[in-house]
Write a structure and sequence with these properties.
This protein is of the alpha+beta class. It contains four helices and ten strands. It is globular.
């Protein structure tokens, strides 16, 4: 299935579906901008992808590395009561653009969860991709997410 998030085109497996507005109500996933939330119920994977255009000054003052570290710090504070642990920072290429990311683990209602938050920029617009999955299926879930991200194409 092809999902367009502004100029970012993601091809996701058919097992994913886009959550409706009603299903997204109350979720904080899209606080960074306009986008979509995708879910694969069978594999217990959720991906939110959003975009936001920042001003020139903001782009000059804070690079992606600073932004991802600030996001991790904010996430750590918000998730402290869930046993949050940052498991590392990484860099990846998304169709020619460098992306900065961090991975973490936490516990939600008795279920061990893992997540990855990523920021990249294309033509002056910031793109955010947040992925969540059950830690017990870490290898399979991260392989699915890597496949999706490796096939992202920029439309313009």
């Amino acid at each position: 299935m092809e999902v367009k998030i502004n100029a970012m085109c993601m091809n996701v497996p058919e097992e994913f579906r886009i959550l409706s507005a009603e299903e997204r109500a109350g979720m904080q996933f899209l606080e960074n901008g306009e986008g979509e939330i995708l879910q694969d119920n069978g594999r217990h994977i959720m991906i939110s992808a959003a975009w936001k255009k920042h001003g020139i000054l903001a782009n000059l003052l804070a690079g992606k590395k600073d932004a991802i570290r600030a996001m991790e710090k904010k996430t750590a504070a918000a998730m402290k009561s869930f046993g949050y642990e940052c498991t590392g920072f990484l860099q990846e290429e998304i169709d020619g653009e460098t992306a900065e990311a961090f991975r973490c683990r936490y516990n939600a209602q008795g279920t061990d969860m893992s997540a990855e938050s990523m920021i990249t920029t294309h033509n002056g617009i910031h793109y955010y991709v947040h992925s969540y999955w059950r830690t017990e299926s870490d290898a399979e879930s991260t392989a699915v997410i890597r496949e999706i991200l490796s096939n992202v194409k920029w439309l313009h």
